[in-house]
Every structure is written in structure tokens, then in C-alpha cells.
Design a protein that fits this description.
The protein has about 350 residues and is α+β, with helices and mostly antiparallel strands. The protein has three domains: about 1-90, no CATH class; about 115-135 and about 205-340, 2-Layer Sandwich (D-amino Acid Aminotransferase, Chain A, domain 1); about 140-205, Dna Ligase, domain 1, CATH 3.30.1490.20. Helix content is about 30%, strand content about 20%. It has helices at about 1-10, 95-105, 110-120, 120-130, 145-150, 150-160, 185-195, 245, 260-280, 315-320, 325-340; strands at about 20, 30, 55, 65, 75-80, 80, 105, 140, 165-170, 180, 200-205, 210-215, 225, 230-235, 250-255, 285-290, 295-305. Strands 12, 13, 14, 15, 16 and 17 form a six-stranded antiparallel beta sheet that branches. A four-stranded antiparallel beta sheet has the order 8-11-9-10. The protein is globular and about 60 Å long. The model has no long low-confidence stretch (mean pLDDT about 90). This is D-alanine--D-alanine ligase. It is found in: Cytoplasm. It comes from Nonomuraea jiangxiensis. It is an enzyme of class 6 (ligase). Cell wall formation.
């Protein structure tokens, strides 16, 4: 869905675009001309695999190759930059970034380390706490602990106090998340999260409003910039901001700027930039906070490749801050093109 929005917004007089889909079986394919990018009749789009299969050879050269079984590979051309509008494991967790680094291809967004740490909520919180950002209380349940010492880890999680949120440590788009109110729900929630990731995070519930802020790398040596903060509210009856609330129509609302005291809004923006820099992010990120009834700002998480449809939170935050979606797409491509490949 995000890729569809980028394809609609990008300046075709400035860029030659090759849309690439990654199928559920891992094959890279040239997107079909009639590829569907939007939700229709409640059904999420999937990659159409009828196009030619693609390969990006390692060792530099940036050549994109198309091939079919029994035929000679055909070079489609040199790739200047990749815009990886992808979420979840093997997409925004440093793996695809590492592949592109090995191939010598520039790409939009954060590098291998920032992507990997940003994806792992446990390590992310460790880095943010070291950077002085206030975080909520949590417990990490690793695969070995769950298999060999389940009673102990459940007891540690219960010490956070109910209700708790149970999350896969390295999943995206709110996949596998549950809210637990007692021991039975907690155990079931951990098992559910483990379907997505053997490493699970249990977080204490925080009473407060969800405030999000987008961060964008600046050209040259200027510091990163933060958007106006916005408040997210779930409108579809869900108990928290889950997958349906994020992606299906009319399930959430966004108020920009959020109704906050000026000092709090500026503090939140500064904290968002600090989180961006603490992780060595590049390109873009969205940083999520809670604003509590007693006036505290608590860091929740950072997303190094946030939802990127034109109606997603980060693009809406930038649009309200004076940077419309097509200009945001162009800025990100130009930032990627200006960076050297390899270590930086």
C-alpha cells in the first residue's frame, strides 16, 4: 500500500521507476502493470507474481537482472537508489539493508545497525534509556526462558501489574500484540506473540495520550528536523492501536498539531530528534510517545521505516508541517542519493 502511494506521488519526469515486488515465497518480481496496491472489499493487496523474476547481483555494478526459466538473463539497467517501502522482519530490520550494502546500492532510510536495533524493541529501549529518554517498565521473555523457566518469567511479568501489553520483540505493524488482564490472558498472549517471534516483550500499561512525531534527516551538516507532534486516537472500537486501526479506513484519527502546552510540544520534538540521533538513523523515522495525565512525556518506540501511504501518520505529520507527500518522497530519494555507499 505504501509502495502504491509512492508510485503515485513520485515525479516521473525526474525519475525512471522500476517497481519491484517481493512475493510471499521470497521471489523478487517485476510488478505487473495491473498490480493492485489498495484495500478492496476488505482484502489487503498482495504481490502479483506474474512478472519476470529479478535479481540484484552482489559485488557492485548496481545492475538489475530479469530472468525466466530457461532463458538468458536480461539487464534492465543500473539502479541508482532503492526505496524499500517494506515493514517487518527481513524488510526494515537491517537484512534488506545489508543485502543492498553488499550490492553497492544506495537506499532510502536507515542503515543496517539502526534498522536492526530499531526493530528489536528490547535493544531499542536499552539504547534510548542510555540516551536519557524516559521509558516504561518492561520484561523480556526469551525463547529459552519460556521453554525452561516459564513460571519465573510469568511471575516477573506479573510484577509489572495488570493490564500489560505483550508484543513480539521484532515484528511490525502491531502484528502479534495483545493486552492481558490476568495470568491466563498473559500466558495466551505470550504464546500468540511467539507465533511471530520467539523473543517477546511484556510492557506495563501506561495511562496517557499517544503522541507521535516524525523526524527527517536534513541535507548537509544540518541537524535532523522534527515535525509538529500529532495525537493518534483509535476510532474503530479497538482497545489499542492495532493492525486494523493502522491500515483500514476510518479506524483512527490524527490531530496535528496535538493539543499540548508549547513547552511540552517542543520537549517532545527535541526528544524525537535525540532518539533519531541515538540510533544513528538516516532518512526518516517516526517516534512514538505517551503524554501522561501528570504532564510527563514517555518514550514508547521508534520506527525507522514508518507506514508510508499518503494517509499514514508520518506523511500526514510532515504535510501538516509544510512538506507535502510528493515533496517528502523526493526529499528522501535525494537524501539517499547524496550518501556514499558503504561505511559512513
Amino acid at each position: 500500500m505504501g509502495a502504491g502511494s509512492v508510485l503515485e506521488a513520485i515525479d516521473r519526469t525526474k525519475y525512471e521507476v522500476i517497481p519491484i515486488g517481493i512475493a510471499q515465497d521470497g521471489r523478487w518480481v517485476l510488478a505487473a502493470s495491473d498490480q493492485r496496491y489498495s484495500i478492496e472489499a476488505g482484502e489487503l493487496p498482495v504481490v502479483d507474481t506474474s512478472g519476470a523474476e529479478l535479481a540484484l547481483p552482489s559485488g557492485g555494478g548496481n545492475s538489475l537482472m530479469a530472468y525466466d526459466a530457461g532463458s538468458i538473463p536480461v539487464e534492465l539497467g543500473t539502479v541508482d537508489v532503492v526505496f524499500p517501502v517494506m515493514h517487518g522482519p527481513f524488510a526494515e530490520d537491517g537484512t534488506i539493508q545489508g543485502l543492498l550494502e553488499m550490492a553497492g546500492v544506495r537506499y532510502v532510510g536507515s542503515g543496517v545497525l539502526a534498522s536492526a536495533v530499531g526493530m528489536d524493541k528490547a535493544h531499542m529501549k536499552t539504547v534510548m534509556a542510555a540516551a536519557g529518554l524516559p521509558t516504561g517498565r518492561y520484561v523480556v521473555i526469551r525463547d529459552r526462558d519460556w521453554r525452561l523457566d516459564r513460571y519465573r518469567v510469568l511471575k516477573e511479568a506479573e510484577e509489572l501489574g495488570y493490564p500489560v501489553f505483550v508484543k513480539p520483540a521484532r515484528a511490525g505493524s502491531s502484528q502479534g500484540i495483545s493486552k492481558a488482564h490476568d495470568r491466563a490472558e498473559l500466558e495466551a498472549a505470550v504464546e500468540f506473540a511467539r507465533r511471530h517471534d520467539p523473543k517477546v516483550l511484556v510492557e506495563a500499561a501506561i495511562e496517557g495520550r499517544e503522541i507521535e512525531c516524525a523526524v527527517l534527516e536534513s541535507p548537509g551538516d544540518e541537524p535532523a528536523a522534527a515535525s509538529l507532534p500529532g495525537e493518534v486516537k483509535v476510532e474503530g472500537g479497538q482497545e489499542f492501536f492495532d493492525f486494523e486501526a493502522k491500515y483500514y479506513p476510518d479506524q483512527m484519527s490524527l490531530t496535528v498539531p496535538a493539543d499540548l502546552p508549547h513547552e511540552t510540544a517542543e520537549e517532545l520534538r527535541a526528544m524525537a530528534v535525540r532518539a533519531f540521533e541515538a540510533l544513528d538513523c538516516e532518512g526518516l523515522a517516526r517516534v512514538d510517545f505517551f503524554y501522561t495525565p501528570d504532564g510527563r512525556v514517555i518514550f514508547n518506540e521508534i520506527n525507522t521505516m514508518p507506514g508510508f501511504t499518503s494517509l499514514s501518520v508520518a506523511p500526514q505529520l510532515w504535510a501538516a508541517s509544510g512538506l507535502p507527500y510528493p515533496a517528502l518522497v523526493d526529499r528522501l530519494v535525494q537524501l539517499a542519493l547524496s550518501r556514499p555507499a558503504g561505511l559512513r
